[in-house]
Automatic annotation (TrEMBL):
Gene3D superfamilies: 1.10.150.130, Integrase, DNA-binding domain, Intergrase catalytic core. This is Integrase. PANTHER family: PROPHAGE INTEGRASE (PTHR30629), PROPHAGE INTEGRASE INTS-RELATED (PTHR30629:SF2). Keywords: DNA integration, DNA recombination, DNA-binding. Belongs to the 'phage' integrase family. Pfam families: Arm-DNA-bind_3 (PF13356), Phage_int_M (PF22022), Phage_integrase (PF00589). PROSITE patterns: TYR_RECOMBINASE. Residues 204-376 form the Tyr recombinase domain. It comes from Xaviernesmea rhizosphaerae. CDD domains: INT_P4_C.
Length: 400
């Protein structure tokens, strides 16, 4: 039997620098500065492992021997003590990991996939507003379907889409926690959905202004302010609010505005930039906006950053309109359907919609730029008080 307990408490502090065997694989490594480290040597599956047990300043000889026996027992059962200790630490740490910590880590890891690195807050805000205030301080291991049900029940029917997004984001957070090795119930969100039941909320379309009324509204946007100019360009181009609000001078080349692929919502071909042809009226609006640009952004807010969608919406509300800025896309689409015979694929492309299946899009080599230019020029003529008469767009094979 190997000799054990070779060292004494007194010798631990008085020994010269070097390596000293206490027996049964427990070693003391003394340093030149008088400090030292306890190290346990064990053999697992025929491979020697060295495991640190702490410094002599923190761990006494007695405690080192007790710890060594604990880990030797695992080695005798063919378990790697280093891996088992790491696993125990992860489990202990996991019980202390709150949902708030996990949610923030999940958000950080996904920023590169999100529009503008997630700075607009659309990914994180459902969690921040509706989940974290009630569940954020809980360890993720304690979150179950009942906790989730009780959290989302107040908005499940009244704010169905928001609740759905919050639940989906929470599901992502739980999967993120599981990937970190934490003990979570990955089915909790599905169970909560079953407990909450089917939502009674009926989706409603965003209020839109009839295309016949757009010219009068456009004419009212005449004071040259950032908000008026932004709404004018929004109407003229038919783009969504976010790309317009973050419009940067670098995106404009002559009479074409190129929206980066990552800024295009809902595009399946998200690696392709989207070109917007600019009418003469749109170019005039841009020229005026450039005089108020800040940091290259054409529509800056008063304090910092860019104008918000709420700013434009509030202007319309104060003017007595129920329609919202996003609704001008519907106004344009209705005009295309009722006042032109624009082909479906051209009309949809104007709005930045992906048209056709994946195979069809892969073989299509045109974005109908010139056809869209003609239509948007006529739309500009309509909204500035000109005619909205029907005209024809003829598709040419291979036109670009």
């Amino acid at each position: 039997m190997r000799a054990t307990n070779r060292l004494s408490a007194k010798s631990v502090t008085s020994l010269a620098p070097g390596k000293y065997n206490d027996g049964a694989g427990l070693w003391l490594h003394k340093r030149d500065d008088g400090g030292g480290q306890w190290v346990l040597r064990v053999t697992v599956h025929g491979r020697r492992r060295e495991m640190g047990l702490g410094s002599i300043a923190d761990v006494s000889l007695k405690s080192a021997r007790e710890a060594a026996e604990k880990w030797r027992d695992l080695a005798r059962r063919d378990l790697d003590p280093i891996k088992e200790r790491a696993k125990a630490k992860r489990a202990a740490h996991g019980n202390l990991q709150t949902l708030k910590d996990i949610a923030q880590d999940a958000f950080e890891s996904r920023k590169a996939e999100l529009k503008g690195d997630g700075l607009a807050g659309q990914w994180f805000s459902p969690l921040q507003l509706h989940i974290l205030p009630k569940l954020g301080a809980l360890p993720v291991s304690e979150i179950d379907q009942k906790e989730i049900r009780n959290t989302l029940a107040p908005i499940w029917h009244s704010k169905a889409e928001t609740a759905r997004k919050a639940l989906n984001r929470l599901s992502i957070c739980l999967k993120h926690a599981a990937a970190l090795g934490l003990d979570v119930d990955l089915q909790a969100t599905d169970k909560a959905r079953a407990l909450l039941g089917k939502s009674r909320h009926k989706a409603t379309n965003i209020p839109a202004m009839p295309w016949q009324e757009v010219p009068a509204f456009y004419a009212s946007l005449s004071d040259g302010s950032v908000t008026h100019l932004a709404l004018r360009l929004l109407i003229l181009t038919g783009v969504r609010s976010a790309p317009l609000r973050f419009l940067h001078e670098d995106q404009i080349d002559d009479d074409v505005w190129t929206i980066p692929a990552e800024a295009m919502k809902g595009r399946k071909d998200a690696t392709v930039d989207f070109r917007v042809p600019l009418s003469a009226e749109a170019m005039a609006v841009i020229a005026e906006a450039r005089r108020q640009a800040r940091g290259g952004f054409l529509f800056p807010s008063v304090k910092r950053g860019v104008i918000s969608d709420m700013t434009m919406a509030m202007l319309m509300t104060r003017a007595g309109h129920k329609a919202r800025p996003h609704g001008f896309r519907s106004s344009l689409r209705d005009w295309l359907a009722e006042a032109t015979d624009a082909p479906h694929e051209v009309a949809e492309t104007i709005l930045g919609h992906a048209v056709g299946g994946a195979v069809e899009r892969a073989y299509r080599r045109t974005d109908y730029l010139e056809q869209r230019r003609a239509l948007l020029a006529r739309w500009a003529k309509h909204v500035t008080g000109g005619t909205g008469a029907i005209f024809s767009i003829v598709l040419k094979e291979g036109a670009a």
